[in-house]
UniProtKB/TrEMBL annotation, chain A:
The coatomer is a cytosolic protein complex that binds to dilysine motifs and reversibly associates with Golgi non-clathrin-coated vesicles, which further mediate biosynthetic protein transport from the ER, via the Golgi up to the trans Golgi network. Coatomer complex is required for budding from Golgi membranes, and is essential for the retrograde Golgi-to-ER transport of dilysine-tagged proteins. The zeta subunit may be involved in regulating the coat assembly and, hence, the rate of biosynthetic protein transport due to its association-dissociation properties with the coatomer complex. The lineage of its organism: Eukaryota, Viridiplantae, Streptophyta, Embryophyta, Tracheophyta. It is found in: Cytoplasm; Golgi apparatus membrane; Cytoplasmic vesicle, COPI-coated vesicle membrane. The keyword Ligase does not apply. This is Coatomer subunit zeta. Belongs to the adaptor complexes small subunit family. Oligomeric complex that consists of at least the alpha, beta, beta', gamma, delta, epsilon and zeta subunits. It holds the Pfam family Clat_adaptor_s. Gene3D superfamilies: 3.30.450.60. The keyword Transport applies. CDD domains: Zeta-COP.
Automatic annotation (TrEMBL), chain B:
This is Coatomer subunit gamma. The coatomer is a cytosolic protein complex that binds to dilysine motifs and reversibly associates with Golgi non-clathrin-coated vesicles, which further mediate biosynthetic protein transport from the ER, via the Golgi up to the trans Golgi network. Coatomer complex is required for budding from Golgi membranes, and is essential for the retrograde Golgi-to-ER transport of dilysine-tagged proteins. Residues 27-540 form the Clathrin/coatomer adaptor adaptin-like N-terminal domain. Belongs to the COPG family. The lineage of its organism: Eukaryota, Viridiplantae, Streptophyta, Embryophyta, Tracheophyta. It comes from Hibiscus sabdariffa. Its main location: cytoplasm. It comes from the Eukaryota. The keyword Transport applies. Residues 622-767 form the Coatomer gamma subunit appendage Ig-like subdomain domain. It is found in: Cytoplasm; Golgi apparatus membrane; Cytoplasmic vesicle, COPI-coated vesicle membrane. Gene3D superfamilies: Coatomer, gamma subunit, appendage domain (2.60.40.1480), Leucine-rich Repeat Variant (1.25.10.10), TATA-Binding Protein (3.30.310.10).
Length: 230, 887
């Protein structure tokens, strides 16, 4: 498109030829006026298409974990669409009120507003959200959500509620860090995510869900000591 | 040793709102962060403090520059600890703090050590952190390690390097481009996500090179066994290649279509959907190509997963706009979705059905929708209302039930936007379906009896004033209108007075009664209402005698304000109170087109009510001021039109020149905007020598040289021509830039004493017929067309020859005539075989012109056009034909 119009602009003086009543006229030489957008600097015009090409890669705009009153538990934004904290809070509030009345406890639910696609899932007093652009593949977003949701479940050994999450917030932050990097999906497999978060080294790469009884007991003992100490 | 995160109450189990961060405070946590400096580090304690810091940041707390620096420096101390868990938190913390360049140096060596560590997890994370905070200079140092990491056998390390590469490509493209070979190797990786990240990076490295992308796609589409995400990416790249090679598809077989179709049988749902969506979005997709995609989407419709149903119905909804018949097979599944728990899905299903439904199913559908409307939000209702409007336009015979539906929902609760959407729809239906007029008007009348929105009341009153008098029994509307004068606020009362006056002007039988009503309005409490009543009583001859209303009174009451409101507003602001009255003729009439916003809202239907969309502030005022400040041009009179700037030089030449054509009644002024792009030169005495030998009717009368044109500060020079008064003379002008060039010493910025005279050839410039037509829109084309009358109508047919598309032909003719497209008719729906475009404008000499263009495809690419012109002057009507004929 762009190239074609550069060519038109270059040729339009030379190739002007008319069309007569009832006759066929020359299709290429017709453009009389220079295209209206000729003025802006060239780089400005390339930018949008650059951006478009960048968008070809599936991008996550944010991942939110809110409580049952819409308050922030842990959130991560990967896009400049919400530059200030108040913009972020406004978005969270909007998402929360819009989805609050729906039941997203068995299957992930989905909604669309303000040109964003939001997939979400609730458990106990926690609301999980993943947001993407309006043209994003909904199923990719849903797989990110499922990855996050299941990984948190594995990390917290199935007892997922706000209190557990807050008590293990360090692990939740690590979890968010392992799922998406700067908007690009890093990993969607919950086992792998939880494994990366929990394992103290990558080398014992056994999936988290298949940890041995001894390991599980060790972790349980550790957690018990921790809670006694506190 | 480990202290509690916060003090807890013993009975915390009962407390619902318990949080380990209860009562957390930034100052206290920053104090706690001092433990990072302890010689004997306690990893668990440090982790807890970092978690608190992250929690604060996450809750929207912000650190001052000093605080952030302090935290950053103490966090760097933690690299001494060997504790893996703590190191992970340190990585996350550094990313959150996004340190400044001089701070980054402190951690660089620690991170580089981790990058070469034996522990994979260290390597992967250190790469991500370092690439996030680094700048270009450091990047060259670590480039070697990154290249190795890309082909690392551990997938996590490879992915970390590749993803970092994608981010770095935005800031340091030249470095990342050097990694092509390694990235290419990673594309072949067995690890699913490595392949995905490598493919994304490789495509971005090569995206400027169309051939390379083409090669990449054709080699990869032959392979198999890829991760679903990588496969989705490949589908997107493939459709991009298809789009760009769209020109050579005459043979019928689309390249790569087989690949897309194959993906429909992939095992991952995201791939199936991505492929189906890609197929539906192909340019000029055929129904044969569509069928397999629609089939898989139809299966998704009955999935148990809401996300799949939503994705499918959203895509089908889009398809229904262009290929309604292709979607009809899904209608049964779609109807069951109306009761879907997820209201987004239900709304999309309803609107899709409305688009694909046939005449016989309308009534049944409306029944279902009525139940559905009560439990969805306003924004969804608006979507439904718009869909019903287009359905009604499609099946005018069904107007009765659809109009009833609209009037029912108009009575129910709803916000302004929703009510406005309904009113707009009724107005459009009244305008386009004559049989619906009387019922529609009565529905509107009933609505304003109990309408809380002043805007809607006044708009409806205005509309009643225009349409009401033309109905079979105008008297029945008077009651509704006069009720407004009693019951409403001043704005609505004033509107009602104007509407009464219009009935009085048009219906002689009602005149005496209208006069009585208007006289009562003379006692209103509001100035505006009284003023209007007085004004109308006088113009209509309210002294009791029933006389035929004069043509100029009708023009006053019904004529549209033919100037854009924005322009009027600007002129009024500039008007300084003085003896001289404000002259409405001095307001510029040109509507500045706004290509950007028009693109944003494609296919936006004209709303039936109100004025044409306001244009942005025009530059006409600025030009007019500029020109009238130059004494040579001050006597030329009022500026008729200024063209958009036309470039006379190629981009990136030594001197950039563009020209603006200013058209006056008897003169034309060329304004040359010049920019000197050579830092070592100063230009003086800049003029443009214009050769008008190919423009016989023009004679040069004045010019204004530009005294000096330093580097990079634009200046203007002007040349004025005289031409016969009011005649749309056309011609071609050749231009030569002449100036004295002086060398400038770049270090001191001083110019040398002596200069050399030089010339620079510019491109030719033409004054064309479109320069004599102003883009002036009308709010209601049909009304304007009918009131113009057929006295000076000229109709003829033209063959436009082969064209790429109908849209291209339409735009070409619009550009040629330089007129304002009305009612959104410049947008041609894709794949249509014929199109009608309405244009309006003002010809030089203030003659209104309306044009109706009917385009049709004749044979495969041949476009034929029927051109009908109406204007106030037959010479002008002929002139428009002349322009098209000689264009």
């Amino acid at each position: 498109m762009f190239e074609q119009w550069i060519e038109n602009a270059a040729n339009f003086h030379k190739r002007r030829s008319g069309f007569q009543k009832g006759s066929v006229f020359n299709p290429t030489g017709y453009s009389q006026e220079v295209p209206p957008n000729r003025n802006p600097i060239v780089s400005e015009k390339i930018l949008p298409s650059e951006k478009k090409k960048m968008d070809l890669c599936p991008l996550v705009k944010n991942i939110l974990l809110l409580d049952s009153e819409g308050k922030r538990v842990a959130v991560k934004y990967y896009s400049d669409d919400w530059p200030t904290n108040s913009a972020k809070e406004a978005f969270e509030k909007a998402v929360f009120t819009k989805t609050q009345k729906t039941s997203a406890r068995n299957e992930a639910e989905i909604t669309m507003f303000d040109n964003y696609v939001v997939v979400y899932k609730f458990v106990q007093d926690l609301h999980f959200f993943v947001t993407g652009g309006e043209n994003e593949n909904e199923i990719i977003l849903a797989s990110v959500l499922q990855g996050f949701f299941d990984a948190v479940g594995l990390i917290l050994r199935g007892s997922v509620d706000k209190r557990e999450v807050l008590e293990n917030l360090d692990l939740i932050f690590l979890c968010l860090d392992e799922i998406v990097d700067g908007g690009i999906v890093l990993e969607t497999d919950a086992d792998v995510i939880a494994g990366k978060v929990a394992s103290h080294s990558m080398d014992d790469g056994a999936p988290f869900s298949e940890q041995t009884i001894t390991q599980a007991l060790a972790t349980a003992r550790e957690r018990l000591t921790r809670s006694l100490l506190t | 040793m480990a202290q509690p995160l916060v003090k807890k109450d013993d009975d915390r189990d009962e407390e619902a709102d318990y949080s380990p961060f209860l009562g957390i405070e930034k100052g206290a946590v920053l104090q706690e962060a001092r433990v990072f400096n302890d010689p004997q580090l306690d990893p668990r304690r440090c982790s807890q403090v970092i978690t608190k810091l992250l929690y604060l940041l996450n809750q929207g707390e912000s650190f001052t520059k000093v605080e952030a620096t302090e935290v950053f420096f103490s966090v760097t101390k933690l690299f001494q600890s060997k504790d893996i868990g703590l190191r992970r938190m340190v990585y996350v913390m550094i990313k959150e703090l996004s340190p400044s360049a001089d701070e980054v140096i402190i951690v660089t060596s620690s991170l580089m050590k981790d990058m070469t560590s034996k522990t994979d997890m260290y390597r992967a994370n250190a790469i991500r952190v370092l690439c996030r905070i680094t700048d270009g200079t450091l990047l060259t140092q670590i480039e070697r390690y990154l290249k190795q990491a890309i082909v690392d056998k551990n997938p996590v390390v490879a992915s970390a390097a590749l993803v970092s590469g994608i981010h770095l490509l935005q800031t340091n493209p030249e470095i990342v481009k050097r990694w092509s070979n390694e990235v290419q190797e990673a594309v072949q990786s067995r690890a699913a996500l490595v392949q995905f990240h490598a493919l994304a990076l490789l495509h971005q490295i090569r995206q400027k090179d169309r051939l390379a992308v083409n090669k990449l796609v054709s080699s990869l589409t032959r392979g198999s066994a890829r991760s679903p995400l990588a496969q989705c990416l490949l589908i997107r790249y493939t459709s991009q290649v298809i789009r760009e090679s769209a020109n050579n598809t005459q043979t019928g077989d689309r390249p790569f279509y087989d690949f897309l179709e194959g993906c429909l049988r992939h095992k991952a749902e995201m791939v199936i959907f991505e492929a189906a969506r890609a197929i539906t979005e192909l340019n000029g997709v055929t129904s044969r190509e569509l069928t397999p995609a629609i089939t898989v989407l139809q299966l998704f419709l009955s999935s148990s997963k809401p996300v799949l149903r939503f994705a499918a119905v959203r895509t089908l909804n889009k398809v229904a706009m262009t290929h309604p018949t292709a979607v009809t097979n899904c209608n049964i599944d779609m109807e069951s979705l109306i009761s879907d728990q997820n209201r987004s899905i239900a709304t999309l299903a309803i609107t899709t059905l409305l688009k694909t439904g046939n005449e016989s199913s309308v009534d049944r559908l409306m029944k279902q929708i009525t139940n559905f409307m009560s439990d969805i939000a306003d924004e969804f209702k608006i979507v439904v209302v718009e869909a019903i409007r287009s359905l009604c336009l499609k099946f005018p015979l069904k107007h009765r039930s659809l109009m009833n539906f609209l009037s029912n929902i108009l009575r129910e609760e709803g916000g302004f936007e929703y009510k406005k959407a309904i009113v707009d729809s009724i107005v459009i239906l009244i305008r386009d379906i004559p049989e619906a007029k009387e019922t529609g008007l009565l529905h509107l009348c009933e609505f304003i009896e109990d309408c809380e929105f002043t805007y809607l009341s006044t708009q409806i009153l205005h509309f009643l004033g225009i349409e009401g008098p033309k109905t079979s029994d105008p008297s029945k509307y008077i009651r509704y209108i006069y009720n407004r004068v009693h019951l409403e606020n001043a704005t609505v009362r004033a509107g009602a007075v104007s509407t009464l006056a219009k009935f009085g002007a048009m219906v002689d039988g009602l005149k005496p009664r209208i006069f009585v009503l208007l006289r009562r309005c003379l006692f209103d409490t509001d100035d505006e209402v009284r003023d209007r009543a007085t004004l109308y009583l006088n113009t209509l001859g309210g002294d009791g005698a029933v006389v035929e209303t004069g043509a100029d009174v009708k023009e006053f009451l019904f004529g549209s304000l033919d100037i854009p409101l924005v322009n009027l507003e600007n002129s009024l602001k500039n008007y300084e109170a003085s003896e001289k009255p404000f002259d409405i003729n001095s307001v510029p009439k040109e509507v500045k087109t706004q290509p950007l916003t028009e693109k944003k809202a494609p296919g936006k239907k004209p709303t039936g009510l109100g004025a044409p969309p306001p244009g942005p502030p025009t530059t006409v005022d600025a030009y007019e001021k500029l020109l009238s400040s130059i004494p040579q041009f001050a006597k030329f009179g009022k500026l008729f039109k200024s063209s958009a700037p036309v470039e006379l030089t190629e981009a990136e030449t030594e001197y950039a020149v563009s020209v603006v054509k200013h058209i006056f009644d008897g003169h034309v002024v060329f304004q040359y905007n010049c920019t000197n792009t050579v830092p070592e030169q100063l230009l003086e005495n800049v003029t443009v020598i214009v050769d008008a030998s190919e423009a016989e009717e023009f004679a040069e009368v004045a010019s204004k040289p530009l005294r000096s044109l330093p580097y990079d500060s634009p200046g203007q020079t002007f040349v004025a021509f005289e031409k016969p008064d009011g005649v749309p003379a056309v011609g071609k002008f050749s231009n030569m830039l002449r100036f004295i060039v002086k060398e400038v010493d770049p270090s001191t910025g001083e110019a040398e004493e002596d200069g050399v005279e030089d010339e620079y050839q510019l491109e030719d410039l033409e004054v064309v017929a479109a320069d004599y037509i102003l883009k002036v829109g009308v709010s209601n084309f049909r009304n304007a067309w009918e009131s113009m009358g057929a006295d000076f109508e000229r109709v003829d047919e033209y063959g436009l020859g082969p064209r790429d598309s109908l849209a291209e032909a339409v735009n070409a003719v619009i550009d040629l005539l330089g007129m304002q497209p009305c009612e959104g008719t410049e947008a041609v729906p894709p794949n249509s075989r014929s199109h009608t475009c309405l244009l309006s404008g003002v010809y030089i000499g203030n003659v209104k012109v309306l044009v109706r263009l009917q385009f049709g495809l004749d044979g495969p690419k041949e476009v034929a056009m029927k051109l009908a012109v109406r204007s106030e002057d037959e010479i002008v009507s002929d002139a428009i034909h002349e322009i098209v004929a000689s264009g």
